[in-house]
């Protein structure tokens, strides 16, 4: 029984260490990715007008752009395996006296293959009254998977594009000055969303070719994840330790205390 208690203590300590490790790793990862763009340089103050000219931004980096109503504004940002991205956009509208009708604003998010990605949460489209001063939009994407079937539309690691535009606008209101503010935040979904397999390369412009990648091909500061590692490995190891502990404990309880004293030695 004493040996069983020793095994139990060792197993519990090992399990606690394994369960504590993902939190520390996640904290390091969040610290490395968040706000990195602000440390590397000034926040962008312009936006592209197409996929090819999209302005690259990093997660947690605030970007602004002066534009005119009716313009299509594009930004590009990286999202890696296991991350869930949320795009935020706020538009400072023109003076109410210069507007003639309500306007509808929307954000669309596309992946590296320029496939439009559905919003899991948020308000990607909103109609505002002629006297409104601003409009705020958001879109939370599904968790990025390391691998997917070719026919599926699952989000995959690579460059993503944020497009901001206005629809349903009267011709008299086109060309009025607006100011757009955007920001992308990411969270780690953890091993619960992990899948087997990984892409040969992330979906970024120019991947797999010799031509130079455009500026929109941003990537995480620590590089792209390989896709094989996830916290599932830690939970699997913890489960193995608990199973071994259960086996040792069961054996110690069922084997008894040895040969009964009343049984003759010759039997």
Task: Report on the architecture of this protein.
The protein has 267 residues and is of the alpha+beta class. The protein is 22% helix and 25% strand. The protein is built from three helices and ten strands. Strands 1, 3, 5, 6, 7 and 9 form a six-stranded mixed sheet that branches. A hairpin with a 5-residue loop joins β5 (103-110) and β6 (116-117). α1 packs antiparallel against α3 (232-254). The radius of gyration is 27 Å and the shape is elongated. The chain starts with a helix and ends in a 13-residue tail after the last helix. Residues 21-39 and 208-217 have low confidence and may be disordered.
Summarize the SSE layout with pairings.
Layout lengths: L1 H32 L2 H5 L14 E2 L6 E6 L4 E7 L3 E10 L10 E8 L5 E2 L7 E4 L5 E7 L17 E10 L9 E12 L43 H23 L13
Parallel strand pairs: 1-3
Antiparallel strand pairs: 2-10, 3-9, 4-8, 4-10, 5-6, 5-7, 5-9
Number of strands: 10
The SSE order reads: HHEEEEEEEEEEH
**Cα Rg:** 27 Å
Roughly what fraction of the amino acids lie in strands? 25-35%
In short:
22% of the residues lie in helices and 25% in strands. It has 267 residues and is an alpha+beta fold.
Question: Key terms for this structure?
Answer:
22% helix; 4-stranded antiparallel beta sheet; elongated; alpha+beta; 25% strand; 6-stranded mixed beta sheet; 267 residues; 10 strands
